User: Fold Diguanylate phosphodiesterase from Paenibacillus antarcticus.
Amino acid sequence: MGCNNCIIRELNFEIRVEGEHNRRILPEVIHHFNRSGTLHNVTENICTIKESGARDFLDFCYDHMNTEGVKFRVQDQEWRPLSEMGTVLEMEWIDEVITKELITCHFQPIVNSNEEIYAYEILSRFKKEDGTIIYPNDIFTAARNRGRLYALDKLCRMTAVRSAAPLNKKTFINFIPTSIYSPEFCLRTTAELAKQLGVDPSLFVFEVVETEKVDDLDHLKSILTYYKEKGFKYALDDVGEGFSTIEVLLELKPHYMKLDMKYVQGVSSDPNKQKVAKDFLEKSLQIESIPLAEGVETKEDFEWLKQSGYQLFQGYLFGKPEPTPKSGR
Assistant:
């Protein structure tokens, strides 16, 4: 059993119509799409059409139907207003990025208290075929809108593992837990690739990204358990926001905990940030997790964090993300 969401196929749009006027017109709509070969399925007041017929339907709907009574969804997501359908269609470019693997990796150093390179965080960068840069927020927004988050996350993970293999050094790789249905199936390819490349799995640290709020703690635990069983390490980011209680952290037992940059930048002169940083440090040591401060940009902040007991550091002070790993001590 594999994950069909990792395979890029033509999108199907489920259309749900409500209201007497819309229901009266629906049979004609169904007849039209059946004739054009773009009808996929029909169930009562819901019809599923292929993307190739979606723009045609959108034009017809605005001309002849009560748009407030029409909802759509893709990939079993929540039902959405028709007004958002055009945005989903315009983001079709994400499919090309994934199928053609238009992705590269950048490397940002993570250093110890002696400023020696301990690891690299691998960050994905994207471009369209014409060379246009795609910003991370844009690409992940497009992936969510079109139900491609699963496929994009897999592409990022697999590309990062391949890029990390020649380094023979610890690397931090982001992943989106909500994109993973079943660790056994969705993450198996990652474990198999690491084994195929002959890389010690303990060199990989999979990091729960801060942009995804995890509501299902049991699901996250099953993912982290899978990684641990395969010999990988894992890190939690944005701990103060989503994983604030010591009980939760003891359940998850991350190997690393990252202090968010909003508490790092200016910490040397801000008593409020210092309190957060000290509480974070105490919490990480209590669960035997390695504390890592990210977003370090000044010597003053670095020295304060180092003197306070932080062990690892990341930020522009030590190096920006670059296409080639920075060499150092």
In short: The CA atoms of residues 287 and 323 lie 35 Å apart. The chain has a mean pLDDT of 88. The chain has two domains: 4-90, 93-314.
